[in-house]
Amino acid sequence: xxxxxxxxxxxxxxxxxxxxxxxxxxxxxxxxxxxxxxxxxxxxxxxxxxxxxxxxxxxxxxxxxxxxxxxxxxxxxxxxxxxxxxxxxxxxxxxxxxxxxxxxxxxxxxxxxxxxxxxxxxxxxxxxxxxxxxxxxxxxxxxxxxxxxxxxxxxxxxxxxxxxxxxxxxxxxxxxxxxxxxxxxxxxxxxxxxxxxxxxxxxxxxxxxxxxxxxxxxxxxxxxxxxxxxxxxxxxxxxxxxxxxxxxxxxxxxxxxxxxxxxxxxxxxxxxxxxxxxxxxxxxxxxxxxxxxxxxxxxxxxxxxxxxxxxxxxxxxxxxxxxxxxxxxxxxxxxxxxxxxxxxxxxxxxxxxxxxxxxxxxxxxxxxxxxxxxxxxxxxxxxxxxxxxxxxxxxxxxxxxxxxxxxxxxxxxxxxxxxxxxxxxxxxxxxxxxxxxxxxxxxxxxxxxxxxxxxxxxxxxxxxxxxxxxxxxxxxxxxxxxxxxxxxxxxxxxxxxxxxxxxxxxxxxxxxxxxxxxxxxxxxxxxxxxxxxxxxxxxxxxxxxxxxxxxxxxxxxxxxxxxxxxxxxxxxxxxxxxxxxxxxxxxxxxxxxxxxxxxxxxxxxxxxxxxxxxxxxxxxxxxxxxxxxxxxxxxxxxxxxxxxxxxxxx
Length: 650
Description:
The protein is an all-beta fold. It starts with 16 loop residues before the first strand and ends in a 23-residue tail after the last strand. Keywords: Cell membrane, Leucine-rich repeat, Membrane, Repeat, Signal, Transmembrane, Transmembrane helix. This is LRRCT domain-containing protein.
């Protein structure tokens, strides 16, 4: 639609909502165009290619509350009578146009307006004191994603009830006018992120006594003076990340922020933080300083942070932690020190004071030595991350005192063996990750002593043998993941003694032989992955013969299997999916899958099948998907009893 004729809505006096979005209107010129809509409360004109709006076009809409004019082609709000008559308007959307100029007083008369969106336009300066005249009840103003370079003093003073002001993604280089936010005593949220701000006047925020959220992220701030935040007594959230801060050396920088709960300082250039800088932040709960250049943590750095629960100092250059550095942080729950340069944990006072710590992240350091008792103060620790370090051995009491530890990550270290008593006292340990080390013998890890473990990760080691009883008496064990090892065979009853075991992954090992009964006594097993090994033969009864297993998924793809033994799958009456893709199976004999009464998906793609017996698939009453593809296949397939109408043999 390109044009709306005058009087077309004249008989729609009871209409409350009108949606004219997505048209090609270009110009709204006539005051009579919307005549007759005296009860209209919502009007949608967005995405309509509107370039110009004439005077008094909306004058006949006294009850209009919502007006959408966003995503059009407006370049200016030049005439003073555009919004005349909209005495009930509460929400005005003008975002994502091409507005470069707004005439003084264009919003006069919009005394009921609560929300004004001018985001995504081409405004470059806000300098006239009359620009927002008439918006005495406005609560939310969006000016983000413009090109604003300059904001003059007292520009927002005509909006005393404003609560939210968004100025992010503009081109502001400074906030040097001391009265720039004067009159905004009710403002609660101010976003100045992603500008080019280098300097902030000491008095810039003086009038913002009710401010709760201040965003200064992604600017070019190098220094913060002592008085900038001094009047923001109710501020709860302060974002200073992605600036150019080099140091925090004055103890008065954060003075006055007695209610601050969240402080973000990540991705700056911080080299030094003076002791006591955070002492005036008694309610701070989260402090984020990752991706800076700190090389040490001093004993007084975190002084006064008695309410801190989360401290993130990842991706720095920390080599040293002074004794007592965390002594005041008795409420801390999560400490992140990953991706630093720590090489030893040698002092029993390193983590002193962290009596409520639950999560400790030390990934990607250079830690090679953990001295006895280092973790002893951490009586509530449940999650310890030590992956990607240089730990060679675990001494008998490396984890002494961690009575509540549930998760231990030691992935990608240099561990060959584990001392016999290392797991002593870890009575709640559920999750052990020893993957990507150089362990050769599972029995030398003494993992069978961890009676509470539920998940065990041993992939990408040098394990060549699983002895019977390696996992004996692990009554809570659910998962064993051992792919990418050198295991050559799986002996009978290799996994006996773990009655709750439900998943085993042995993929990409060197397995050539599976002995009968290899997975017997795994009564509630759900998933077994034996893909990408060197298995040639599936012997009878590898899953046992006396009991019926609950196995649901069996992956045997990418092996060298040539023949399917009649009794191989005998006990697998619950199997739902069987993957035999990419093997060397040449022939499918009668009744080979006869016991798989619950099987729904059977994968036989990329084998060497050149013959299929007439009753090869007999008994597969539940099968819904059968995949078999090979260019040499010549045999006719006889399928009976299938409950699915369509079977794919592509």
